[in-house]
């Protein structure tokens, strides 16, 4: 487990993860992973994790933990995960300085 400033969780995202975790009776650990696919080449995948794995990079805010596995870290290094509510709905969003382009849905990107 590496604690680093390589990833960040905003207060809004931390509050939403804590709320979801309480409702599901799980630990407030959000896992961000990157999979191949999506309309731009890579897509973000979010889910609650049961535990922090030894090779995870970790960011903590307000009692909530954001974890990224070693394979995904190169694609999201320097990112911030936010939770945004708008007229179009509510969703987790990743501000990724490594992404060369994204798509309209906001869930996929290219390098």
Give a quick rundown of the structure.
The protein is α/β, with parallel strands linked by helices.
Detailed description of the structure:
By secondary structure, the protein is α/β, with parallel strands linked by helices. The chain has one domain (2-104): HesB-like domain (Hypothetical Protein Aq_1857, Chain: A). It is 19% helix and 47% strand. The protein has two helices and ten strands, in the order E-E-H-E-E-E-E-H-E-E-E-E. It has helices spanning 11-24, 70-76; strands at residues 2-3, 7-9, 29-37, 41-48, 57-61, 64-68, 79-86, 89-95, 101-102, 108-110. The protein has a seven-stranded mixed β-sheet with strand order 1-5-6-3-4-10-9. The chain has a three-stranded mixed β-sheet with strand order 2-7-8. The longest helix is centred in the first third of the chain and has 14 residues, at 11-24. It is globular. The mean pLDDT is 84.
What are the SSEs and their pairings?
Layout: E1 2-3, E2 7-9, H1 11-24, E3 29-37, E4 41-48, E5 57-61, E6 64-68, H2 70-76, E7 79-86, E8 89-95, E9 101-102, E10 108-110
CATH structural architecture: Sandwich
CATH superfamily membership, which one?
HesB-like domain
The domain tally reads 1
Sequence of secondary-structure elements: EEHEEEEHEEEE
Remind me, CATH topology? Hypothetical Protein Aq_1857, Chain: A
End-to-end gap: 26 Å
Shape: globular
Share of β-strand residues = over 45%
Tally the beta strands: 10
**SS-based class:** alpha/beta
Q: Which residues sit in consecutive blocks of at least 5 with pLDDT less than 50? A: none
Helix percentage range: 10-25%
**Could you describe the largest sheet, including whether it forms a barrel?**
7 strands, mixed
Number of helices: 2
> Using only CA atoms, what is the Rg?
13 Å
The chain-level mean pLDDT equals 84
* CATH class descriptor: Mainly Beta
With strands numbered from the N-terminus, the spatial order across the biggest sheet is 1-5-6-3-4-10-9
């Amino acid at each position: 487990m590496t604690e680093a400033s390589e990833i960040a969780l905003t207060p809004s995202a931390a509050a939403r993860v804590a709320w979801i975790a309480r409702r599901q009776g799980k630990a407030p650990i959000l896992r961000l992973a990157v999979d191949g696919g999506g309309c731009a080449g890579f897509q973000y995948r979010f889910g609650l994790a049961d535990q922090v794995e030894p090779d995870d990079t970790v960011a903590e805010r307000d009692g909530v933990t954001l974890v990224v596995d070693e394979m995904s870290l190169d694609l999201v290094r320097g990112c911030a995960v936010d939770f945004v509510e708008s007229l179009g709905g509510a969703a987790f969003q990743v501000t990724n300085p490594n992404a060369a382009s994204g798509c309209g849905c906001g869930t996929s990107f290219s390098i």
